[in-house]
Design goal:
It is a single chain. This protein is an alpha/beta fold. The protein contains nine helices and twelve strands. Helix 3 packs antiparallel against helix 4. The longest helix has 13 residues, at 107-119.
Length: 260
């Protein structure tokens, strides 16, 4: 029993094309779970079958159809499932495959994407870049709610500047989502906070770091340590710069961390 993602590009958009494909799947006893357009000329399907031989027969037949061009046929990835839900693919950096880009109008997709990541167990380090008031923290919290996970702020500026130096009770659970602001933590002179961050980073849990590029400065961590990097912009051409953000934190002391 398995799910498969099937995507095709329409060469000739004739009446009945989708019906022909659906009928073929039906004859092979392959169930269609969902269908959606994932681009102007492409359509995706999530299908399920108890018989993988039927999938191979279907793949052979559709590859000979003149009016479509099969572009993907594979076991579904997270991006495939989200493309079906929302009608288009999440843009990914051509050079850095773990970097995904969103704009503020796509907050719903971003929350859905992060929630799916949060549902997976084990260590995961996620960085999120973006200018102030673009929706970074709100999206992380909303995704935590969607994933039915408790979120813990280690450092933040969401309401007021927060720097935690200890956790209590079930706050140390591996099932929690740990959130920190990379600029606030980088500038912190509280050794207890920095030690707490080290402990959190060593836990097999999900960590989300806002401003990851600032977090890794003068620290033992590297940007390559991040499993996913998310970029959130007000519009696609917005430049993400840290000069304004550092001024907003109103902290002018020198960058000395004592080994962080």
């Amino acid at each position: 029993m398995s799910d498969w993602y099937f995507e095709y590009e329409i060469q000739v958009n004739r009446p009945g094309l989708l019906g022909d494909i659906a009928s073929l799947l039906g004859m092979l006893r392959v169930n269609i779970i969902s269908i959606n357009g994932v681009d102007e000329d492409r359509r995706g399907m999530l299908v399920h079958t108890d018989n993988d031989e039927a999938i191979e027969r279907f793949r052979t037949i559709v590859s000979t159809m003149e009016h479509i061009n099969v572009t993907k046929f594979r076991q579904p990835k997270l991006r495939d499932r989200l493309a079906l839900r929302h009608g288009h693919y999440i843009p990914r950096d051509a050079d850095e495959k773990n970097t995904f880009r969103f704009v503020r109008d796509e907050l719903g997709i971003l929350v859905d994407f992060m929630a799916e990541l949060f549902k997976k167990e084990g260590h995961k380090l996620i960085g999120i870049r973006g200018m102030p008031r673009v929706g970074k923290t709100e999206s992380i919290v909303a995704a935590s709610v969607c994933a039915n996970k408790k979120w813990i702020f280690l450092s933040s500026t969401m309401i007021k500047q927060t720097v935690r130096n200890k956790l209590a009770g079930d706050e140390f659970s591996d099932n929690n989502i740990f959130i920190l602001d990379g600029i606030v933590t980088r500038r912190s002179s509280d050794e207890r906070h920095l030690q707490l961050v080290r402990e959190m980073m060593s836990m097999p849990s999900i960590k989300v770091v806002e401003h990851p590029d600032m977090f890794v400065q003068h620290s033992e961590y590297k940007i390559e340590d991040f499993d996913y990097i998310i970029e959130l912009r007000h519009h696609p051409d917005e430049e993400i710069t840290y000069e304004i953000m550092e001024k907003n934190h109103m902290m002018s002391e020198s960058d000395s961390f004592g080994g962080f």
